[in-house]
Amino acid sequence: MDALLGTLAENELAVVRELRPDRLTSMDEDELIDLHARARRQRDKYVKQYRRQAAKSIKDAGGRGKAHARNARARAKAELFENVLAGVSRQLAVVAQASADALHAERVAEEQALAAPPPPQPPRLVPQRSTTRPKSPDLKKRRASTRATNARRQARRDSA
Q: Could you tell me which of 23, 16, 33 has the C-alpha nearest to residue 76?
């Protein structure tokens, strides 16, 4: 393992160092998401590299079994970053669940505060009507029609 760590670049080694439990537990969700993305990039890089090298060396080595040993370092690095990614994912899941629980508790508290029944109002003795009438075209037409009907009725009464 130490030999493998010695072959890592500084930015790759920094990702591995972040996996220490004291470092992981002190990170917030955004930092963990950033670390998760960095670990995934490194893992994807070495998995692709391993697959490409393995595919190239099958023909030269004469089979997959013989080519397997030639590509050991890329495979070991891919496995290392897979383990790093798994550790970061676990911690990210814990932090995300805690964040979701906190948001849920906040939402429930707000709903309970809003759901409290308002104090009872004294009953109204006389229903109040609005002094302003709606001004939709349909209502204007109905009012005009009613006025015209009443005017015709009144005109018939007046002429009789």
A: 16
Over residues 23-64, the pLDDT tens digits come to 888 888 899 999 999 999 999 988 898 888 888 877 777 776
**pLDDT tens-place string over residues 63-103:** 766 666 667 888 888 888 998 999 999 999 999 999 999 99
Give me the amino acid identity at 128: Q
**Predicted model pTM:** 0.59
Which class for 132: exposed (0-12), middle (13-18), buried (19 or more C-beta within 10 A)?
exposed
pLDDT at residue 16 in the model: 83
3-class secondary-structure state, position 114: helix
Tokens (6 digits) for 9 = 């670049």
Per-residue CA distances from 8 to 45, 56, 88, 121, 136 (Å): 13, 23, 19, 74, 74
Q: Which of 12, 69, 17 is nearest to 46 (CA)?
A: 12
106 Cβ contact partners less than 8 Å away, ≥ 6 residues apart: none
- Residue partners of 33: CB distance under 8 A and separation at least 6: 92
Domain ranges of the chain: 2-112
9-18, 63-72, 75-84, 140-149: least confident range: 63-72
